Amino acid sequence: MANSVVLVSLVAFGLLMLTSTMTRVEAAHRAFFVFGDSLVDNGNNNYLATTARADSPPYGIDTPSRRPTGRFSNGKNIPDFISNALGSEPTLPYLSPQLTGEKLLVGANFASAGIGILNDTGIQFINIIRMFRQLQYFEEYQRRLADLVGIDEAQRIVSDALVLITVGGNDFVNNYFLVPFSARSRQFQLPDYVRYLISEYRKILMRLHDLGAQRVLVTGTGPLGCVPAELAMRSPNGQCAAELQQAASLFNPQLVEMINGLNSDYGANIFISANTQQQTNDFISNPGAYGFTTSKIACCGQGPYNGLGLCTIISNLCPNRDEYVFWDPFHPSERANGIIVDMILRGSTNYMSPMNLSTLLALHTNTNT
């Protein structure tokens, strides 16, 4: 369930983010596909026999039904806010029996909590949808879509769609840095491990493109050592865990470099990346600038920083989730997710490379008009 924590902050846009409603992208209706881990899982794991689930209270406490939805949030997650900006309904989990007929036109969410870039990441969660399987499901989805609308129209829908992929953090917190040691930490020194991850991630992105993706938003990892879970386990003084911070500092620049290389190879800006480490550093260092009271303590949990164990009905639970950057030991609150997506939509090139999401979608819309 631990995962790459993408909490963003943007000093130059801080007040605007906090006071504005979610920006709607001026673009024609498009499908939306989501791949990755628990930051973006809309409930696929509810249909699996795994411990990596968010299907019990108090998850979902701030949804209209006040019931858990499978999202690792008190309410909306990152894909939900992007769907809002696209003027679309939220994508359904691919495993949901409701994903039939015209619902297929909206897109699909293939993400699964606990997974990583590598197939051996999250093995303790057993039955999760690893990246290779998510891509297989994407192929299956396209066959189902073609049966509904025809092959040519299905290809157009996929080509015009927006794709989000959020993966990588689990490869550190649920693999390399597993306590007391892991097979990968014995196999690789950290810099070599990061290079290996990037090379494997490149293969995943190339496969997405081979399957028809033309607009792909890729998020990096946030400051992994600063989440409440890592503070509780590794920090006696409340300072971010140095080893995990080093991992993020190595991973994110290489991810951007790899994405720029792919765009150069393809001769087009297929991929855009979110510099989530820089974004989150602002959040973590000055939560009050964004209306939060704390960036260290999770709203739901137990132990130091509410960072130990799972968020359950017997956990400590804060009364005002909007004041907390973190909802549970690893995941951002609904309000933090909204700020993250606002930055993805409108952030400067200090945070988005080579452009923000609104610009990418506007370029495509102008090309088609």
From TrEMBL:
The protein's superkingdom reads Eukaryota
A GO BP entry: lipid catabolic process
CDD domains linked: SGNH_plant_lipase_like (cd01837)
A Pfam family of this chain: Lipase_GDSL
According to its UniProt record, which protein family does this protein belong to?
Answer: Belongs to the 'GDSL' lipolytic enzyme family.
Q: Tell me which positions the record assigns to the signal sequence.
A: 1-27
Q: Which UniProt keywords apply?
A: Hydrolase, Lipid degradation, Lipid metabolism, Signal
Q: Which GO terms describe its molecular function?
A: hydrolase activity, acting on ester bonds
To which species is this protein native?
A: Hibiscus syriacus
Q: Can the keyword Hydrolase be found in this entry's annotation?
A: yes
> What is the designated name of this protein?
GDSL esterase/lipase
